[in-house]
Amino acid sequence: MQQPRAQGSGLWGKVRRSTSTLTTLTIASTSMRAKEELDAMLGAARFEKYFAVAGEDVERAVQLYRWNTRLAGAFHSQLSYFEVLTRNAMNSALQDWNYQECGHRDWSLEHQSADLLYAMLNRPMGQARKWARKESQRRWSGHARKNAPLTHDDVVAQLTLGNWSNLLGEALPVHRPNAQILWQNCLHNAFPNVDRGDQSREDIGKRFERLTHLRNRVSHQENLLETNVRRRLNDMLAVLRAIDESYPAWAMVGSQVRQVARDDPRKSWT
Question: Taxonomically, which superkingdom (predicted)?
Fold first, then answer.
């Protein structure tokens, strides 16, 4: 009597194995095409990090990229609050001090900066004035302030978070000696809820520098895959609390940072 063929043997088995192999190759080919298209669309160097972290799984890499974009958007809102609140607090302290030093409150305008501030911020202030003039020229023809003379507010609005960070002396060590003097004579007044000693300047300065680095990554659409979200939020809230006890709660209204961080797709990967 003829013995039954083993499952998967004979012509049908060959067809099944061939079909399975073809399916695998098709999936691999499709995945490869998708990767090539994403490299062209997003930039190979940019997408490679997500692809590697996702274990070379294209679908997961895209999922991670989209999540990263959400996190960057959430952080952008928080950093916007942080930048405006700290800028205004520091500017107010600088205006009072600069007036005492040289009789001018509008310290960012030409020939109106105290010597110490000029030494620390001369080049950035010059660049900020240049950008502010361009903004004035670009205003539409009917705008009330088209080609208007620069104001202090125009220039201050053009200074970057990095410029403010430099005044605290932890971003560029070359500025540290001047920053220590500026803190003792002026900037400690912007942060009344911390001790006026130099340790407070150093602590706030380091937090500022970490947040400046984060802001740059967000602004340039870099990945935030290794960002410690909790610590960066703590940096923001600690600096804001040093200015005013009510600022942290105000800045966190509507914040999506913590929720987006909890949605990190890597938590569900096995």
Answer: Bacteria
